[in-house]
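Meet my pick.
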Amino acid sequence: MVTVNEAFERLWPAVASLLSDGTSRGYLVAWRLRVAPTFGVRELAEVTAFDVELAFASWSGSVSTRKDAVAMLSALCRAAMKARLIAANPCVGVEYRRRQAHDPTSRALSRREVDRLFEVLPREGCYRRFVIALLYTGCRFGEVAGLRVGDVDLEGLTIRVQRTASPGSRGEIVVGPTKGRRVRDVPIPEPFVPELLAAMEGKGEHDYLFTGPRGGFLSSGNLSRALDWPRVRERVKTFPPGEPALHWHDLRHTAATNLFFANVPATDVQAIMGHSDLATTQRYADTRRDSARRGGAALTAYYGQSNGRLRGGESPAKTADYRDF
């Protein structure tokens, strides 16, 4: 029998080799703060799905943070199965409380809020260009940081997204494949062209496009400090109490939402955003709200036949027929 700690020491190098640097870094945090304190001294073969559910309920942090901890333990257990240390993965049977589906469009900026964003950003410079790149491309933060001059096709008005630059396990910037390890092209809207040309000026084909003032990589932390983002974002968009403040990733939500507003087909939006499945993309389609708008217009026309109201207890002017609806 081996403990969870012993399994981690033996199997983690193999587990980490299959993960991106960002995921590996997150899993190590989950291990240190949640998994190891809860399960470290337990025998791995004795851990049950119910044990994991109890741990999930006791852990602090957001639901997504706690799910990351379960995912970390599950990855370790999958490796343990391959090594024939256990017969089954206890994380497979874990159940979570069903919650209301997240609406990413609620995080997106409206046109007026986009205008405010442009107003609060510096008039020019690398920090402004990086934020505008997040907004116009819909790329993840690390994907924008990883863009090179040669990725830009000004003739075809596209950018090839094929790498990400993000902090590694020791805080150093690591350049690697994108999430999902897919290469994709994103469109360049005409208003973005001047910012691209400014970013490309004086650089070679293999130089990074959106760098800091000294030519180094920008991270979410140093960009936030440079712009005093916690103060600035309050002038752009606020949220109800209990919801997190505007985040850099919300600019990606904005781009996806705007693609649907521009009547881009869902399959094209999926390709542009790099979503692994169409269900993720459809969350931005806002089809339920569009259904409500269409229903409102139909009801308005229907109620208009009775001077804007239905008269309770009165006989209708004519017998309803299904063809009237």
